[in-house]
């Protein structure tokens, strides 16, 4: 949902700007709302993927205590915290974003305040930390821990299967049914892990250019730049933004290609239509 919101609010106005019909370039309130919702939706989508990585880590843990930490109440609370924190964090855009700026020599006027260096630093730093850096670190760390848990779990299963169990003959039928259920659950979990891994990889790769550019813009904010250098920065900036939007556009295809459950539900939806 939030990925779609990023595309509509963030990418569509860029297309309209090419035809000179982007109202966010001429109306200040639309400009501020556009940046706020673009940042907010991108941050929320990234945080939700991070929460999914944490959830996969907890469910794959061999510790019963960690698995019991997953409850609907905690999930709803985490979502609420993410939503509220995003509003507070990116609310600065209503002050630091305005029209008639052309900060990087770009054709769009809606951007950070050109004469307010503190706003440029704050806006770039907040987006880099909370929309790019922290979600990427959480995805990488908990993704690695999840695969470590899966490896440990498979090692334990193999050890049990190799052991000598004298009661195997009396509970064979029951064990077989339980084993089939476990295999189905493991298959589903495997698909979810694959889908999550691909999504994390796409996120890290697609957000890396804009993250580097944001850091560069903060470090060089006080430098006097030639028109040629500004033009080069503008080109790099636009390429980085396109790369960032690529992450939001490809989510549907990741779910379709990597998630069998998602494909089944999608086909059901098409049949009903």
TrEMBL record:
Occurrences of domain G-protein coupled receptors family 1 profile (ranges): 1-255
Main location: membrane
Parts of the chain that traverse the membrane: 36-54, 75-95, 125-147, 196-216, 236-258
One Pfam family recorded for the sequence: 7tm_1
InterPro entries: GPCR_Rhodpsn, GPCR_Rhodpsn_7TM
Keywords: G-protein coupled receptor, Membrane, Receptor, Transducer, Transmembrane, Transmembrane helix
Position of the signal peptide: none
Membrane topology (UniProt): Multi-pass membrane protein
GO cellular component: plasma membrane
Cell compartment(s), UniProt: Membrane
Alphabetized GO MF terms: G protein-coupled receptor activity
Designated name of the protein: G-protein coupled receptors family 1 profile domain-containing protein
Organismal lineage: Eukaryota, Metazoa, Spiralia, Gnathifera, Rotifera
């Amino acid at each position: 949902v939030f990925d779609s919101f990023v595309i509509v609010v963030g990418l569509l106005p860029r297309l309209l700007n090419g035809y000179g019909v982007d109202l966010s370039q001429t109306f200040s309130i639309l400009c501020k709302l556009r940046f706020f919702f673009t940042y907010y939706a991108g941050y929320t989508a990234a945080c939700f993927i991070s929460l999914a990585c944490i959830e996969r880590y907890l469910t794959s843990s061999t510790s019963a205590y960690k698995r019991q930490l997953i409850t609907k109440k905690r999930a709803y609370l985490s979502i609420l915290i993410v939503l509220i924190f995003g509003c507070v964090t990116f609310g600065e855009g209503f002050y630091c974003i305005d029209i008639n700026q052309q900060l990087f020599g770009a054709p769009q006027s809606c951007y950070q305040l050109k004469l307010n260096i503190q706003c440029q630093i704050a806006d770039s730093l907040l987006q880099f930390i909370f929309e790019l850096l922290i979600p990427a670190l959480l995805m990488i760390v908990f993704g690695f821990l999840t695969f470590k848990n899966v490896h440990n779990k498979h090692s334990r299963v193999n050890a049990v299967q190799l052991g000598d169990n004298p009661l195997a003959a009396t509970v064979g039928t029951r064990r077989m049914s339980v084993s089939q259920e476990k295999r189905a659950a493991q298959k589903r979990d495997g698909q979810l892990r694959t889908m999550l891994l691909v999504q994390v990889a796409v996120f890290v790769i697609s957000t890396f250019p804009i993250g580097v550019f944001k850091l560069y813009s903060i470090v060089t904010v006080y430098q006097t730049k030639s028109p040629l250098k500004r033009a080069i920065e503008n080109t790099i900036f636009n390429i980085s933004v396109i790369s960032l939007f690529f992450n939001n556009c490809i989510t549907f295809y990741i779910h379709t290609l990597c998630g069998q459950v998602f494909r089944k539900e999608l086909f059901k939806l098409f049949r009903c239509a």
